[in-house]
Design a protein that fits this description.
This protein is an alpha+beta fold and about 500 residues long. It contains 15 helices and 26 strands. It folds into three domains: about 170 residues, 3-Layer(aba) Sandwich (D-Maltodextrin-Binding Protein, domain 2); about 110 residues, Dipeptide-binding Protein, domain 1; about 210 residues, Dipeptide-binding Protein, domain 3 (Roll).
Length: about 500
């Protein structure tokens, strides 16, 4: 696929479009500059966000999600759930075609789901499908059978981790990026650019997209420009129409009417403080609560992240199913240094006997300044926090051991997590939990139960989980949403959106 002839074809297509209709928005090429390339265009072989942002342009999903978190039709025009919650039926839309012209029907959808679940595929997103034990096709209906109810399934089937590949994409061990999505691949030069062309047969049903047909922009290039300075120079010169900015660059561009900045409001991301709660005195909920009261989250959002994020009140991100920021605010704590000092004094800590902790963090833009402010906030209530900074991968390996300790110096630490459904709380908090941060059998049972529920009953159980985590101060929500997934464009670009899990939606884009 990465042959010079294919690349030349992509360039030729762009040139033809520009010559055929100069100045017409629908015929222009859009170039988007990013810092890194995709590692794969097979959505069932990657969990890399930069890769999934591209695969989301090539492939469709069974279902889609609106801005309010409600689930809507996708490739499936309708769906139903059995009374016991162990069977889902999806009626596949008629007339769907893959990019190579082959039909996409219920049998094709079955092929893709089967491949996603096959252990031989090595799908890093397999767990999101839940306990599916079988697939079957009858006419235009695909039926998924589960060993037990799994309430998060519909939400997951809207996300970029559940993309459907066409059967013609797979031949033995070889793979070609063939889907039914709004764009098709016409060339890929690794670590340089991915060239895409509009799928002229595309019919949109995504509620976040207004355009009912093929994308207006007929040629889309995802270019790799690793250096931030070079990306911004390319954006300002007009060499590219969109680019990934740093936090500082986004703040500057946001003040310039010649540019637009896009925040990832539907990223599903939530940053929070956690504790090595097995180590004294962090085993005391009042001590954890005191630390939470010391944290000036407004300053973290406005100073650390240049006002490009908002305070998050829940253990999971806003805009997800059942995420209720008002309820969570009532269960969590408010910034109150005086009350924090009183709680610490009750536990035996004060100016003459400070509490000494390690503030374990990972090195990322925005986070670094937030952690410096956090260190000052803790010092103000009598907590001496020594910052221990590590690169991201090394940091999480380190925390696996720290969260198992029951003695030694206690650790206060920060992290972020994301998903398209609040079920990611299970991945984080159910024992052993993410980097061994699981809590106890009571919380495990609640997390398991919410998976077996749906609708209002599931929402109620998720609220109970939020309340438990916040009132016991196992989690202190900091900021949300997508602190690391900003985009910027020329003001001439209209209609671009960052969707769920920082998917990039170009269907409505036009260029003045």
């Amino acid at each position: 696929m990465q042959t010079s002839s294919v690349t030349k074809a992509a360039i030729g297509l762009a040139a033809l479009l520009a010559v055929a209709a100069p100045g017409i928005a629908q015929a222009q090429k859009l170039v988007v500059a990013r810092s890194v390339d995709a590692d794969s265009l097979d959505p069932q072989k990657t969990s890399n966000t930069q890769s999934l942002q591209v695969t989301n342009l090539i492939y469709d999903t069974l279902l889609t999600m609106a801005k309010d978190g409600s689930v809507h039709p996708g490739v499936a025009q309708s769906w139903s759930v059995s009374a016991d919650g162990k069977s889902y039926g999806f009626v596949i839309r008629d007339g769907l075609k893959c990019h190579d012209g082959t039909p996409f029907d219920a049998a094709a959808a079955k092929f893709s789901i089967d491949r996603a679940l096959d252990a031989k595929t090595g799908n890093p997103n397999k767990s999101g499908f839940g306990p599916i034990t079988g697939t079957a096709v009858s006419g235009s209906t695909l039926t998924l059978t589960l060993s037990e109810p799994f309430g998060p399934l519909p939400s997951f089937l809207t996300g970029i981790q559940s993309s459907l590949v066409c059967p013609s994409a797979v031949s033995g061990d070889s793979f070609k990026p063939i889907g039914t999505g709004p764009f098709k691949v016409v060339g890929w030069t690794r670590n340089d650019r991915i060239s895409l062309a509009a799928n002229e047969d595309y019919k949109n049903v995504n509620p976040m997209v207004a355009n009912p047909g093929a994308p207006h922009v007929k040629a889309l290039e995802i270019a790799v420009i690793p250096e931030a300075v070079a990306r911004m120079a390319a954006l300002r010169s007009g060499e590219v129409q969109m680019a990934e900015p740093s936090l500082e660059e986004a703040a500057d561009l946001g003040k310039d009417p010649a540019f637009k900045v896009y925040e990832a409001n539907l990223s599903g991301q939530q940053a929070f403080v956690a504790f090595t709660w097995k180590i004294k005195p962090l085993d005391n909920p009042d001590v954890r609560r005191a630390i939470a009261m010391a944290l000036n989250r407004d300053a973290y959002a406005e100073i650390g992240f240049n006002g490009l994020v908002k305070i998050g009140e829940c253990p999971q991100a806003p805009n997800l199913f059942a995420s209720d920021q008002a309820l969570c605010a009532g269960w969590g704590v408010k910034y109150d240094p005086d009350a924090a000092k009183a709680l610490l004094a009750k536990a035996g800590y004060g100016p003459e006997h400070p509490l000494k902790v390690t503030l374990a963090v990972h090195k990322l833009p925005g986070w670094d300044q937030m952690h410096q402010i956090m260190q000052q906030d803790l010092a103000a209530i009598g907590v001496e926090a020594e910052i221990d900074t590590r690169e991201v991968a090394a940091f999480f390996d380190h925390m696996k051991g720290e969260n198992q300790r029951t003695d030694g110096k206690p650790v206060v630490w920060t992290m972020g997590f994301s998903g398209v459904d609040p079920d990611y709380l299970s991945l984080v908090w159910k024992r052993p939990g993410f980097v061994n941060m699981g809590v106890n059998a009571e919380l495990d049972a609640m997390l398991d139960e919410q998976r077996r529920l749906s609708g209002d009953a599931r929402a109620e159980k998720l609220h109970a989980i939020d309340k438990y985590l916040l009132e016991n101060t196992y989690a202190v929500p900091l900021v949300s949403p997508g602190w690391g997934w900003l985009m910027a464009s020329s003001a001439k670009v209209e209609g671009f959106q960052l969707g769920y899990m920082v998917s990039m939606l170009f269907n409505d884009v036009t260029v003045k």
